[in-house]
Structure formats: structure tokens, C-alpha cells
Amino acid sequence: MVFQRQTCRSSGGPPSSPNPLRFGFLVSIVACASALCPGIGVAGTDVPDSLRNYHLDSIVVSAPRIPQSSAPYAFAREIAFDAAQSGQSLAHLLESLPGALVRDYGGTGALATVSWRGMDPSETVVLLDGIRLNGLQHGMVDLNKIPLGGFSGASIAASDAGFDEPAGGVLSLHSAPLGRDLAGAFTAGTGSFGDRVIAATLGAGSATLAGSLGVTQASAVNDFSYDWNGEQRTRVNADFTMRSLYGRAMWVPGANASAFSPRHDLLLNAVESDQGTPGAATGTASTARQHDRTVTAQVRSQWLDSPAAQLETSVAGLYTDETYSGLTWNNAYRTRSLAIAGRGTTMILPGIDLHAGIRETIGEARSSDLADATRFETQALLGPEITLPPSLLFERVRLQVLGRCDIAADHMDGGASITRSLITISAGAGATLRDLPALTMRAFVATTGRMPTFNDLYWNPGGNPDLRTERGTKAEIGARMDVQQAGAWTLDGSAYYIDSRDKIVWLPLNGTIWSPRNVRHVIAKGVTATMAWSPATWITLQAAEDISSHVRAEAEFPGDDAVNKQLPYIPLETTSASLFLRVIDGAVTADATVLRNSHRFTSTDNSSFLPGYTTLDAGVAGRLILAGFTLRPSLRCLNITGAAYQILDGYPMPGRSVHVSVTTEFNDR
Amino acid sequence: MFNAVLIAALAAGLASCTKEPANSITNLDPTFAAYAVWVINEGNFGHGNSTLDCYEPEAGSYHENVYTAVNHAALGDNANDLAIGRGDSLFVIVNNSDVVRLINRRNAHILRSYDLPAGTGPFKMVMINDSDIAITGFASSTVLILNRWTGAITHTYAVGPNPQYIAFTGSWLCVSAPGFNGGNEVDVIKLSDGSVTKIAVGDSPSIILAQSDTSAVVLCSGNYSPATPASLVFFSTNTATVTTRVPLPRHPFKMAADGRVLYIPADSVMTRVDLYNRTLRDSFPMDRVAYGLAVDYDTHTLYLSDAKDFTQRGDLSMYDDQMLLLGRMQTGVNPGTMLVVH
Question: Does any CB of chain B come closer than 8 Å to the CB of residue A281?
Fold first, then answer.
């Protein structure tokens, strides 16, 4: 017998878990926004999203000036959270973005992870306002445990401009901007599968201080019927309740509209969830439950912000608590970490900026399944960014090189100490042609790496303290073109190559004990193409195509039949197309998205597969202003055609579902 | 022109570039030889892709996925054990489906399915008599006695954590119960009064072979972290004591006996133990790692299955008693338990 005790959740639980994001408010594919304002959606130019500023009267409330997430020369996509897309989870929103691979164990209420371009979920860094959510224990992040309340959007990108350079890119969530006026919103929603959500937010500010606070409670019975080899079944024990609290406060002592003043930003998120774990469709009914708590807190201070120098510091804490009951293996897992970081940029010569940063993290994971250890991690980054003067060929060329050093020392409670180090370097370039300014080109190459997690090293039994750090190389070239002809066109294309070595793979030692090994050499390559066309201001069409190959490059043992075969669960081809409408001056918006995923193999030798599937989602939302209040009703239908499909074998996805919500806002910003 | 190119590109993009493979399950209505090697392919836990294969040594024929081909239904999730029933019947334990299936081994037709209580997680079984079957409940930490005629659970014994292998010595049921964290317990159930006696044998006990009415031998694999040695432990059931302990190299998880010779593979080495003298006899290198092991007592042929990376199809190798390779065939995913039937 081979139990997948480690592979899916690695925290010891079964490959199910959790909980949804049924925030009846807030969610919209940015592509929508970007399509309506071409030029925002597809990054890859030389202005990272994190440089956006929000100017509100005398107080300047800004996102950090120093890039925290996507590297400026890597392909990236963004989504914005908006009331018009209620009823969708973050996993669902990311699913249709080219390059994003969502592994979903049964839709809302189940474990869902994301990775970039077929890499493993633990190889994609997830940042919550710069706080790394990938825990020390298993390194994965459950998308359905990320509260969207309080966030304005997210970006997912091929490369990281921060302290990590993982093979699987970075997903970064951004806090919503603050305002000075008193403003608030209340949302109530309901939908299929017993979906219920209520949420409230309140924000206020003054010339020097602004803040917001929000609470959400979402719940659902979440059982749904599905077809299993021609047999009608019902998923049970999938109910959940999730409560979240978020808050943000920014203090700008000595605020001055004409000059920069240091500012201090407090960001807090807390999520508590209780849910059943329905397990795989192939097993008998489960009665197991999971109770989770996650708290993140960060104080970020911006000390300098001028063309000559920028400087910010941050102190961030992360606490997670997972408790399982009713399983064969009941247990609790607690992780804590505290990170102190400083980053800055200074102009050392005209056209040459120098980026530097250092982050010190102390963290631990505690469970009876783990040998007790505490990790001290020091990370540093350093590198120039160069802007070349215009030349005969190029209007503008920017180059960036970043070197990173990561030293992690694990101190065991027994006194032993193990130190690992990792050095990665990334180099990127972006250029605009003089004779064709609508065309921008980009390229980057980087070495990558990922430290083993505590589960990998210290799981008892089976942990392998001799594991090596995963390493690899990735490269990408791309181009983007903005054309005004019969409307606004944005075209973007990328080709990529990722060579990943010493990948950590959990394999059974016998029927019940698994152990991780550095065995896998994977080569991934592919192309991504996106298009957005707005023939008029009220309509936008978008399409994306991703074709990829992810293969095992070397035999791992005698008789290995998986060499040069596509890795399991990674589609060879993903296609999406969307239509966005915005009429009556934005009072009514509507959208529809078709997503097609090709078949995916379920075995490494490609001897079995899940068939391809196509889903159709659509929604309509309105905006009505009454007596100073703004009403935002929303109706969304997911999987309209009721397609029966699985993303992962044994975990059927929900059929058709409908969600409605109404948000009431006052002093809508 | 620009728009035409874009529309053409979009249309090309939306048209699927990949071709889906054909489904390869075929219908079958065979007759299998009485002398056959049955192979359980466990599949992947939670994926419901367990299959049953049949190898006919005399004809040299290997039949894949015979249960589904004959019965047009999935075998279940994580099939894990095989046992000979009365006449031409064959029991198949399906762990994560909480079911025991009884099939006709001459044609693979389903005769009956025994649904066990949800959450049992049946692991291994042994026939006690003509009516009763003892089954370890891995998930429920119990041993169940199933009446094969009525399908009723007649007794339930609470044993150590996560019981795995089981053997019947005549009056006692011996159950290895290592739990998830490398325990060292074998539970001996006295069927006459239902008493359960625990014996500390060695770390990570697994396969148990009955040797006589009052003695058995259990393979203790040892633990990985912190490392403890493997051993072969002989114990008495009526006195509940360890009689002999034979240290073993590496961390073996499988063993199979052929008369006085006990085959114990670990990593890529096959070690042989003399059961009479209770000593290590010799060892042979292999080019496979054993996930399943069975012996044909008549021909002294050793059947060894390799699960490879546990997510691709494995293979079945046949060796003579000097570990010379006789042949090799591809199996399903995670070939584990094998049963040679004459």
C-alpha cells in the first residue's frame, strides 16, 4: 500500500483540506481592467506594478516604491479583486491566467495550490504584502486559505525581484489603498452548495493617519453531486466556515503634500477556518476535520523616496496552526517565523542605480511528526540597474542584475546544526526600439534554488537530513506590442526554458513510510501568447494560449520508462478566451470566460491520463447610486455547461453553480 | 490585413494543438489457467486505479487489468492483498474502498463484494477456517473476523496502531502493528478467549510467517530516523516471547519463504536466510528494487515486482533460485502483492 501522506499536503493530512474564498465581494480579473485600460494587464515592461502610487488629498498612501515581487523583465500577469466577480476563489481566478498551474482538489472548500509554468507548488513563492507565506514546514500555500478581503489585487510572475528566485516564480498579493475619508462597505451573498458570505469594511483617515478594518465570514455546506465513471455520487463532509480579519494603518508623521515624509505601514491579516475533509472520491466517506489559523503581521517603514535614494525596512511575523481530527493520523502543526528586512536603492551614477537588501528570518515548525528544529536564515541581495542612453537602434534600454545569497542554519533541539547555502543570480534586459516604440522586448536568465522544507528534512519517520538544495536555471525571451488600429490591441508573447535539478520528490520506502530524495532532473519549455483587443471603450476581447513541455530529462533508476515523458498533471496546452463589457458608463459590467485545458497524464510514463475539459464562466454586475450609497449587485455562474471534469485524479470538480451578492458602500472610493 | 492576421492567429490558438490519447481498456472474456500468478497493482492512493493482472507461466501469457476488462468496473482504490478462497475463488482486499472482493480466478468474474465499515482500511487477510477470514483494519486499528457466507463481522479485536500483516498459527492470530512512527509491536490474539498479548519484537515489524502452531517469524525493518537495525525475529505465540533474533543488513520490507530458504530483498540486494539454522546464507545483487515478492514452491521461481517511481507502470521479474533473470514483464502501477496458485 502506498499512502500519499506526504505528497499532497505534506503537513501530514490527506490531500484534501479546506476552505474557500467565498467572499461575495471583491474579485475581478484584471485582465478586465487591463483590457479596459490596455497596458496594465501584461507586465514585462520596465515598470513593476509595485511602483504604483495612490495620491489622496494631502496624505500620500503608497505601495512600496521598491519592487517586492515580480522582476521587471519577466512575463507577469495581474488580477484585480472587484465586486463584479463575486463567488470566485483566488484559485479559480488564477486558473485561466497563462502560465499559472492550479492544482485543485475539488473546487471551493478543497485544497488548491498554484505554481508557475508546471513547477511544484513549493517552488512558487507566495507573498502577502511582501510576507512570504510559504511556511518552513511544507513550503506550499493553500490558495483557499488566503483572504482576499483588504487586497486590491495580485500578480503572478516568472521571476522574483526580491530575496528569492524560485523555479516556479512568485505570486504576490497587494493591499488595497487607504483613503482619508470615512468610507465603508457591507456585503451579503449566497449561492449554490449552501454558500453564505457576509463581510464589512470600514476605513477612515486624516492628514497623517489612515486605516481600514474588515471582517468576513464565509461558510458553505459545499456538498455537490458528480459523475464518477457513469455513477452519480455526492461529495460529503466538505462543509466549511472561515472567518477573517484584516486591518491596515498608515502613519505619516509630518505629512507634507510637497515633500516626502517617512511613513509607517501596519498590515494585519488573520484567518480561522474549520472544515470537513471529504477526501478522494475513490475512498469511503470521511468524517475527518481540519481546523486552521493563520496570522500575518507586518510593519513596513519607508524612510527615503527620491530619485537618488529609496530605503525601507520591515518587520514581519507569520503564525500558522493546522489541527487535524478524525484521521488515521491525527496531529497538529504549528509554525512561527519572524523576519526583519531592509532594502534600498541608490543612484551611484547617472543612469545607474544600485539595489541592495538584507533579510534575517528565524522560524520553527513544531509537531510530533517533526524533529524539533529552528532555522536561522540570512538572505542578501545586491545588483545594479542600468538605463542606457538612446541609441540609433533603441529608444530605451534597461538592464538589471541581481545576485542573491541565502544561508540557512538549522539548529536541532539535540544540539546538532546543519547549514545550507544558496546563491542565485538573475539578469534581465528590456528594450524599446526607436523606430517601433510600440514594441518592447525583454529577456532574462536566472539561476534558481529552493531549500528543503522541515518536512523534507525532519519528518518522522522518513525525513532525509542529507537532502541537497534544489537548483536550476531558467531563461525567457518575450515581446509586447501595443497597436492602435481598429481599436486598441495588446499582443504579448514569451518563450521560456527551465532546467531544474535535484528536485525533491517524496517516494515510498515501503507501503507506509515515505522519504524525500533528490532525484529529478526536469526540463520545461514552452511558449505563451496573449492578446487583448478593445474595439471600443465598452468592449474587450482577450485570449491566451500556453503550450508547454515538462519532461523528466534523465533516468532515475534502471527501467525508468518516464524519460522524456510529460510530467503528470501538467497540461500540454491551455487556452482561454474572455469577453468583457462595460456599458452605461460602467454602471453595468459583464464578462464571460472560456477555459480549455488539454488532457493531463496521471502517471510518469504517460500510460494513463485525465481527459481535457472546457469550462465556461460568466457574470454580470451593476452599480447603482442611491442617496449617497452605492449598491453593487452581482450575479455569477461558474461552469455554466456543467462540465464534469477533474484537475487531479479522484477529485471531481463542482458542476454548475450560481452566486449572487450585494455590496452596499458609502463614500465609495 | 493586420486584423485578419490577428484573427487567424487567434483562431489557430483556440484550435487545440494536442491530441488526446485513446482509452486503452479492452473487453475480455477469458479463461485463465489454474496454475497462474496473480498480481495486484495497487495504483495510487486516492486515484481508484488499482488493477488485477494474471500471468500464466506455462503459456507465458500476461493479462493486464483483467478485473475491469471482465467486469466492466473499477477494482477500487488501493487494492492491497490477495488470498485463495474455496475452489477457484480468490479474495482481493481493496484498502481505501473498504471492500473485499471475491472473484472466480478462472475467469475473473466478480462473485461477491463484502463491504466493510467505513474507515476500516483493510490491509491484509488470512483464512482461519472454511467460514472465517481475519482482516487487519489499518485505519481502524482493529482485526475483523468476517464470515464469508453471511458477510457479517462476527468479531472485532482492538490491536496496536495501524496493523498491517497477519498470520494464523492454528490458535493464534499474529498481527504486526508498527503504527506510523516505527513502533515495535506484534499483537497475538488468542482466538479461544479473545485475549490480546503484545510482544515487543523489533522496530517496524511487517510481514509475519507462521512456522508452526505455536511459532512465527516476523520481519522487523528497523527505523530510518533515528536509525535502528533491521532484524528477523522468531517468537513463540503461546509464551509470547522472542526466541531468536537475526540481524539483517539495510532496511528490508519484503520476504518470502521457499522451504527452508527465506528471501529478503532490500535496496538492490537479495539476502537469503536459512530458516532452519536461523542464519544468513548468502546474498545477490539485483537490478531491481522489490516492492512485491512471491515464490513458486514447485518451480522455485522467484517473482519480484518493482514499483519504480510509484507513479508509472512497474515491472515483474522472474528469477531462478540463483537469482538469474528468467524474464520480465510490464505490470500496472505499483505492483505489490503477488500470489502463485496451482
Answer: yes
